[in-house]
Amino acid sequence: MATIRPGTTTAMRPIATLLVLGASLSLTSAHGDHSHIPEGEAISAEPMGTTLWIHILIQSLAWGILFPLGMVFGLVRSRWHVPTQILATALAVVGYFLGHAHGGRQFGKNAHASFASWLMLLLIVQVVLGVYLRLHLERGFLGRIRKWQVKGHAILGGVIPVAAWVQMLLGGIASQGFCQADHLGQCLAHFIMGSAFIAYGIVLTILLLSGQAWLARTGRSQEFWDSLIIALWGCVNTFTEHRWGNPWAHNDLQHTSMGIIWWAAGLVGMWLSRDRSGRPRRNLIPAIVILLTGWAMSAHPQTLELSTHVHSVFGYTLMAAGLTRLIEISFVLRDKVAPKNSDDIDEEINSFQFLPPFLLYASGFLFMGATEEQMQLLSDAGVTHVSYILILYSIAFLLFLFVNMLLHLYSYYTASSSKGKGPSKRHDEEHSMPNGHARVPAMTERQAQDAQEFELEGLITDDEDEDGGKKHSQTNGRAQ
User: Fold this and answer.
1) Are residues 350 and 383 in the same domain?
2) Of the residues 177, 196, 215, which one is the last residue of a structural domain?
3) How far apart are the C-alpha atoms of 399 and 202, rounded to whole Å?
4) What CA–CA distance (Å, rounded) separates 14 from 130?
5) 391, 412, 431 — which closes off a domain?
6) Model pTM?
């Protein structure tokens, strides 16, 4: 049987509370009264109320900022991991119930409301696993499965930010009543592909700042993995962009042909990722695929002038991402693969290397913001393509900044722990008291070290003066 430490009963109370919360999820209706929604519409005509705006702000803070920050703290085993996750969980629970208690605009049945319950259930499982691991039940059956619980907790920690991204997109779609009826297909294509471009940019940023050692351990170049994903994605697009049995439309032909070139080029990129000796080798195939995709998207026919401009800028941005990636590999890195031993990766990063990932971020937001319903809404409101594109670029800059901040935090903690100093918990406990003041032994050791350095400096100075006098007299003797 498992041995439970003292205070386990008290620690189990949060689990019971979360189980009660989970049971209540299925009893909560989705986003208010549906009687005010006109027939055939997804939302009512009222504007969004204050409660709903508070719900949006709280959930954005919890799921968009605090949970990713807590995930990084967990990866580096920081003492801030648990407080951050507790705060994020509390805000997420409050925001969840605010989303079902608002006035103003009402919403029909939608994916955002349905997925919210599953997301909260995922959060409950994650919190239960976290509390269980904090109890340190290391004997009996619970002790034997502990390592699997640790892996499950880590996997869920990585899944939650992705699920939160999906939920936030669904929330934005539901708030405007988009992606209904005939608009569903193109809406899914825009948001899935746009998210894929952003995810690709995030992966490139991670590999640039913190993934070089992992790449070296895999024994393959980065283009191998890029080409593999491109080939798999191309296979999916080849057989899903057209409803088989129906007449071929112009867009179906264009999207299917893009899928074909992706898997064909992806296979070539995988083949060229090794030289004849089996060593990893860089190649330009993924960059060329991105460039061609951008060119195809820039020429995509549109019905609205605003949509034409937005799609054109999206295509040019994606072409720029492919071109800068090509320049980076050929002229900046000169086909150099990931270094096996790198003490300071920042010294090897060129400023130009940040450009391709950012352009992928911008491409993703531009494509997600170019659906038919969004373009019609903005065109009716008199919004110009210039102001809209600048706003989308601003959002891309903010996400790029946030990802870089998280990676800097991760690198700072890992570098400090590897050197035996820095903000690690163990170091803080050894050299500080609970009130934040340094312990007396640490101050005494520092003072003793300073005194020794002072004495050594005096001895060295005296020796240098004596040696200098002897050399001076000898020189004078030779001169005489």
Assistant:
1) yes
2) 177
3) 9
4) 11
5) 431
6) 0.79
Identity at 304, one-letter amino acid code: L
Q: Which amino acid type is present at position 169?
A: L
Give the three-state DSSP class for 248: coil
Query: Within a domain: residue 444?
Result: no
Please indicate, yes or no, whether residues 169 and 191 belong to a single structural domain of this protein: no
Res 468: pLDDT: 53
C-alpha dihedral, 441 to 447 to 450 to 456, nearest 10°: -90
**Pair 159, 197 in one domain:** no
**Residue 98, domain extent:** 10-177
207, 173: one domain = no
Residue 200 sits in the same domain as residue 298: yes
Considering the domain architecture, whether residues 238 and 124 belong to the same structural domain is answered as no
190-202 mean pLDDT: 95
pLDDT score for 119 = 95
Q: Is 222 helix (H, G, I), strand (E, B) or coil?
A: helix
Residue at 4 is within a domain: no
Asked if residue 467 belongs to a domain, the reply is no
| Single-letter amino acid, residue 308 | T
The Cα–Cα gap between 476 and 31 comes to: 98
Q: Which residues pair with 43 in a beta bridge?
A: 107
Cβ partners under 8 Å of residue 123, min gap 6: 89, 92, 160
Q: Do 160 and 71 meet the contact criterion of CB atoms below 8 Å apart?
A: yes
pLDDT in tens, 394-429: 999 999 999 999 999 999 988 877 666 545 444 443
Place of tokens 């007449």: 247
Q: For residue 449, which amino acid is it?
A: Q
Rounded CA-CA distance 70/89 in Å is 11
Residues 155 and 284 grouped into a single domain: no
Contact by Cβ (8 Å): 359, 243: no
Question: 4 vs 296, which has greater pLDDT?
Answer: 296
Mean pLDDT of 313-324: 97
CB-CB neighbours of 101 under 10 Å: 13
Give the total number of structural domains in the chain: 2
Q: Is residue 19 part of a domain?
A: yes
Confidence of residue 343 (pLDDT cuts 50, 70, 90): low
- CA distances 188 to 66, 191, 314, 366, Å, are 27, 5, 17, 15
Residues 289 and 423 in one domain: yes
pLDDT higher than 50, residue 145: yes
CB-based contacts of 330, cutoff 8 Å, min separation 6: 284
Place of tokens 């003490």: 343
pLDDT for res 134: 85
